[in-house]
Amino acid sequence: MTDVIGYCYGLIVFSGGAIGYLKAGSTMSLLAGAIFGFLAAYGAYLDSKVLALITSLLLLSVMGPKFYRGRKIMPAGLVTILSIIMAIRYGITLI
Q1: Contact call for residues 48 and 63 (beta carbons, < 8 A)
Q2: How many other CB atoms are there within 10 angstroms of residue 24's CB atom?
Q3: Tell me: the pLDDT tens digits for 29-64?
Q4: What is the largest CA-CA distance in the chain?
Q5: Beta-carbon count within 10 A of 65 CB
Q6: Is 72 left (phi over 0), alpha (psi -120 to 50) or beta?
Q7: DSSP code of 10?
């Protein structure tokens, strides 16, 4: 079964990196968005819950502290919330 939600998550992460690059000129944002977005979408493509779970947990570990320090919803808060949801989703399917 196709993991449409996983593809959407990967697209949102990639889009966030691209927007960060366009708005702030942050090459690191573009690179991180591309890498994490690709990994999330690739995990959805392979139907690999382990890869998708690891990707969402890594992204959560990066963006969670940024959200905690900055208290800004965009982009850190959105990615943190989505990563929590995806980690729970993939964790439940693995159990």
Answers
A1: no
A2: 11
A3: 999 999 999 999 999 999 889 999 999 999 999 999
A4: 41
A5: 12
A6: beta
A7: H
Tokens describing residue 43: 């995990």
Q: Is the CB of residue 37 less than 8 Å from the CB of residue 13?
A: yes
Please name the amino acid found at residue 29. Answer: S
* CA dihedral (27, 56, 40, 80) positive or negative: negative
DSSP summary character for residue 84: H
* Residue type at position 84: I
Query: Phi and psi for 72 in degrees, rounded to 5?
Result: -100, 130
Q: Treating both helix axes as pointing N-terminal to C-terminal, what angle do 4-24 and 27-46 enclose, rounded to 10 degrees? A: 170
